[in-house]
Recover the amino acids of this structure.
């Protein structure tokens, strides 16, 4: 992915980044009383890490070729406010929270909200994370693009802005990638930014909070049109077939070395 | 070292006055030979100025290269470091804001103790780090810890709601102050590692038993407690510190208690020196001080058949002047032998955990011949002691790792004073 | 109308194993429902591959030089047209890089429900599926409203062999319905990974690091263990995304599939995408501090604890020889 492509042509791109919160993967997920869903009462949420990469990539493109970065965040978790302030502190030009206290939304419902917000706006590029861990009914990037009649590419690992086009790198598997030129406006599902999401000092986030750059748009949670219903959830047996080695690191190491030597290695 | 027989001296720079009398003294001839003065302005002081211009960075400019600090800098013992060297590097153009040297200082304070010019690394390094953090120039291991602390209220990234999980299945009651609805004598500020780290939990449980034995009226905050922030401040994340201090002070001010009992000297330091000017004034006491005052009530009866040496934590000792309380406790252990290491008390050798060092071992490994904790463990083993006693929660994991990595497994065990006292009480 | 459609996937002239896994699932559904299985293959020069899709009854091919490189915009539209042509009511798409572009597009353009992260699908008593969400930590049983649905299926959900035969395998060439030149997306070229580094697919021993390794600086410790065992270090996606190791070391769906004699993981949680790339390793030893880590479900041996405590113990015992 050559950044010379960025320097070639390029008037600034106006980029909209779509952000969604997901249950914090660090938490032990608990089920609700009747096993029909996660217990969401005390669930902590974090920004979907792929969306974090989308934001990073958008900021990198802005740094290279100018333009603006607008962030739209779903008001489906309290943590979204902090996420949006962090985006502003990192360099986003504006941050908008769509709705408030919306609860868990299907991807179809998320798409409806995003599409409604995008219809009020002009943009060259819409970027979001390629997927989220609880995307039961598809991906936001592809659905948003389809509804807006825009071209999209998902699993993107590099973006270079051109003049009325973007050049992107899509990752397949085994390290194989392909490059595409897409006419803008377009939608991209980002797998990874060119660098890890940047650090922003807490004092800058607090400054963003205090200067109150966040806009809130009043939106209702759409009806769920996904056509997909969760009947029951369960936590799969971890350690299913694994022989769990007991004891501290010393006895574990003894046992593991035994296993390794038994397999004919490390002798 | 022999002097070169023909030192490179430019003759035109030598001035010799044939006849001169000053204040009645005749110093004619070769006595008054003087070379041209070499002034500091020969150096481009841009980089030095960038540091001394910062609020807190001024004292860097006072260094006159006497190198007293190098003799006592713990990092220099295993690398090349110290205020004098930083000053010299700045003189010759090092950008401290982006150099690894910015992150190796553990803020142990030994340099300040011996510096005749009071060059204060405890002010300088946090000031420079703060600027580096603002532009995102943070080592990735530390960045990760900043993010975890901001999100979960503890640097380990553990679920905040489980901060009091260590009290479950304990044979003594550790109440939450939020459930007591009354004033308590002692609010015990447990801190992160003693709440979440397995070895910290061992010490917490031991201390809980000891407090119970003493009949102390105490409670903890549990999930309401967040990281005290002192180490974050020293590591340059002042915004994170302010946020944590604000939250903690708001929580503490909701409750009534006489004593704020701390396990962690870093928290103790914050409560003494940083919280009061932010609206949080408490009667903070370190648990060694609290217990030493109650030695005659303790009734230590069981023999502790160990040869114990003691590590002075920088933030209890050098920073806050407490060297005796832990020693009183160790000396009170029946049957125990106490052997001092050679670098103790004011000259104590840092374990490497302060100033963010707890989370910069990767960087330390690249820049030092060994970790400070490994150096210290070797010193402990040299005394012939079988037990290294600690009173700061950052230390137990650092020293236990170091025992293993220096191949001293079986030669030295690391125990908190609370564990030793509990043992001596038969608890 | 009813029927099963399998969106075939290929790269570099070969149909992927995942396609055969989907055909296996389709054959299973065909057995209970009596429905026909149609497979679709879109690309340049696909006729040779088409005949090999033994698990399908009908194979619809769209062959055009413009489809030589997978084009998200073009090929999703072509598949939409093929699905309509087939009259299928159940569409199976792989949950892979290409499948992502296609499945959600089909859902929108055909206006039918889509279920992602599936490991199994059922048609009896209505359309239902079992899915793995939250990086494999949660398993959900899901039902679809109506009698049509798209299922995006995780690789490794069935045995590929079940999809290589059992169908009539009649190949039909369909005229290309979409002009590649009319698209707003132009494929420029395919790039293969840089060689020269270790080929982890041919290593006997792999020490695989995940998020639990915490920082790039700690990878050296894992390397020490790999050296002691005569193997190499590999990693899960997050490590590669951070840039701590090159792409050639990535194990998993978007990386490489490995089958070493020993696979020892340190701090890898075991998201489905990763498991896909290593579940057939001969001896899998997993180290993680989280007892619920999904990696334990495929591992042969597991230890719950701090990998930084264990590493020196292992290196000590193995390097000492």
């Amino acid at each position: 992915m050559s950044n010379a492509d960025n320097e070639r042509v390029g008037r600034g791109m106006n980029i909209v980044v779509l952000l969604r919160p997901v249950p914090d993967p660090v938490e032990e997920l608990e089920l609700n009383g009747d096993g029909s869903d996660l217990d969401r009462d005390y669930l902590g949420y974090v920004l979907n890490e792929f969306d974090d990469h989308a934001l990073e990539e958008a900021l990198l493109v802005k740094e290279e070729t100018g333009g603006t970065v607008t962030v739209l965040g779903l008001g489906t978790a309290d943590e979204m406010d902090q996420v949006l302030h962090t985006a502003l502190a990192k360099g986003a030009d504006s941050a908008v929270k769509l709705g408030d206290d919306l609860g868990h939304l299907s991807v179809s419902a998320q798409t409806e909200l995003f599409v409604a917000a995008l219809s009020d706006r002009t943009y060259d590029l819409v970027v979001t994370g390629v997927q989220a861990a609880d995307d039961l009914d598809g991906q936001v990037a592809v659905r948003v693009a389809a509804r807006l009649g825009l071209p999209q590419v998902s699993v993107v690992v590099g973006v270079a802005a051109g003049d009325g086009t973007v050049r992107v790198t899509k990752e397949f598997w085994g390290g194989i990638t392909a490059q595409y030129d897409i006419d803008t406006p377009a939608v991209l599902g980002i797998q990874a930014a060119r660098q890890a999401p940047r650090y922003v000092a807490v004092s800058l986030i607090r400054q963003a909070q205090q200067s109150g750059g966040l806009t809130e748009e009043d939106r209702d949670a759409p009806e769920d049109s996904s056509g997909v219903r969760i009947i029951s959830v369960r936590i799969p047996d971890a350690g299913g077939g694994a022989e769990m080695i007991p004891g501290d690191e010393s006895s574990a190491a003894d046992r593991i070395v035994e296993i390794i030597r038994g397999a004919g290695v490390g002798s | 070292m022999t002097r070169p027989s023909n030192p490179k001296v430019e003759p035109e720079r030598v001035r010799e006055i044939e006849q001169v009398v000053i204040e009645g003294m005749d110093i004619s001839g070769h006595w008054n030979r003087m070379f041209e003065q070499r002034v500091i302005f020969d150096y481009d002081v841009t980089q030095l100025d960038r540091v001394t211009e910062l609020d807190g960075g001024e004292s860097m400019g006072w260094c006159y290269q006497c190198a007293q600090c190098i003799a006592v800098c713990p990092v220099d013992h295993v690398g090349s470091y110290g205020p004098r060297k930083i000053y010299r590097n700045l003189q010759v153009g090092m950008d401290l804001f982006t150099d690894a040297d910015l992150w190796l200082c553990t803020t142990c304070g030994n340099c300040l103790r011996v510096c005749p010019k009071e060059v204060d690394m405890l002010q300088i390094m946090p000031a420079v780090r703060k600027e580096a953090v603002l532009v995102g120039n943070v080592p990735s291991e530390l960045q990760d810890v900043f993010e975890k602390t901001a999100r979960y209220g503890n640097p380990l990234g553990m679920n905040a709601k489980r901060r009091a999980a260590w009290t479950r299945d304990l044979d003594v009651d550790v109440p939450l102050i939020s459930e007591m609805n009354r004033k308590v004598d002692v609010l015990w500020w447990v801190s992160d590692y003693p709440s979440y780290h397995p070895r910290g939990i061992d010490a917490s449980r031991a201390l809980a038993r000891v407090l119970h034995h003493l009949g102390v009226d105490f409670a903890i905050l549990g999930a309401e407690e967040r990281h005290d922030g002192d180490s974050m401040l020293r590591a340059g994340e002042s915004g994170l510190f302010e946020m944590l201090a604000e939250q903690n002070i708001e929580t503490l001010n909701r409750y009534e208690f006489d004593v704020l009992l701390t396990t962690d000297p870093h928290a103790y330091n914050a409560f003494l020196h940083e919280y009061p000017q932010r609206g949080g004034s408490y009667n903070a006491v370190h648990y060694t001080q609290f217990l030493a005052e109650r030695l005659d009530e303790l009734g230590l009866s069981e023999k502790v058949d160990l040869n114990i040496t003691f590590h002075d934590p920088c933030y209890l000792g050098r920073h806050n002047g407490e060297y005796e309380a832990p020693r009183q406790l160790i000396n009170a252990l029946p049957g125990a032998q106490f052997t001092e290491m050679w670098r103790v008390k004011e000259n104590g050798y840092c374990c490497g955990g302060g100033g963010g060092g707890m989370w910069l071992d990767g960087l330390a490994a690249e820049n030092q011949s060994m970790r400070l904790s490994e150096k210290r463990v070797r010193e402990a083993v040299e005394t012939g002691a079988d037990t290294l006693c600690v009173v700061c929660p950052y230390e137990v994991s650092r020293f236990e790792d170091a025992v293993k990595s220096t191949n001293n497994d079986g030669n030295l065990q690391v125990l908190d004073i609370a564990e030793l006292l509990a043992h001596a009480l038969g608890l | 109308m009813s029927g099963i459609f399998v969106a075939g996937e290929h790269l570099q002239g070969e149909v992927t194993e995942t396609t055969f896994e989907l055909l296996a699932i389709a054959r299973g559904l065909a057995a209970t429902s009596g429905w026909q299985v149609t497979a679709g293959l879109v690309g340049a020069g696909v006729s040779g591959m088409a005949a090999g899709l033994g698990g399908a009854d009908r194979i619809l091919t769209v062959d055009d030089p413009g489809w030589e490189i997978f084009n998200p915009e073009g090929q999703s539209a072509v598949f939409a047209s093929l699905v309509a042509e087939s009259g299928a009511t159940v569409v199976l798409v792989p949950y892979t890089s290409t499948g992502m572009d296609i499945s959600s597009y089909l859902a929108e353009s055909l206006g039918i429900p889509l279920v992602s992260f599936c490991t199994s699908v059922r048609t009896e008593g209505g359309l239902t599926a079992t899915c793995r969400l939250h990086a494999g930590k949660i398993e959900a049983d899901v039902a679809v409203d109506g009698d049509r649905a798209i299922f995006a299926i995780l690789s490794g959900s069935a045995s590929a062999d079940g999809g290589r035969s059992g169908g009539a395998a009649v190949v039909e060439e369909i005229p290309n319905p979409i002009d590649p030149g009319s698209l707003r997306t132009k494929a420029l070229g395919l790039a293969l990974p840089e060689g020269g580094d270790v080929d982890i697919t041919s290593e006997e021993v792999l020490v695989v690091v995940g998020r639990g390794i915490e920082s790039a600086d700690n990878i050296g410790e894992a390397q020490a263990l790999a050296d002691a065992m005569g193997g190499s270090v590999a990693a899960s996606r997050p490590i590669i995304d951070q840039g701590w190791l090159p792409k050639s070391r990535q194990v998993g769906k978007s990386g490489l599939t490995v089958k070493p004699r020993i696979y020892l993981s340190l701090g890898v949680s075991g998201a489905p995408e990763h498991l896909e790339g290593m579940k057939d390793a001969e001896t899998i030893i997993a180290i993680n501090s989280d007892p619920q880590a999904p990696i334990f479900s495929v591992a042969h041996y597991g230890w719950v604890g701090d990998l930084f405590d264990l590493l020196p113990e292992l290196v000590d015992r193995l390097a000492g020889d």
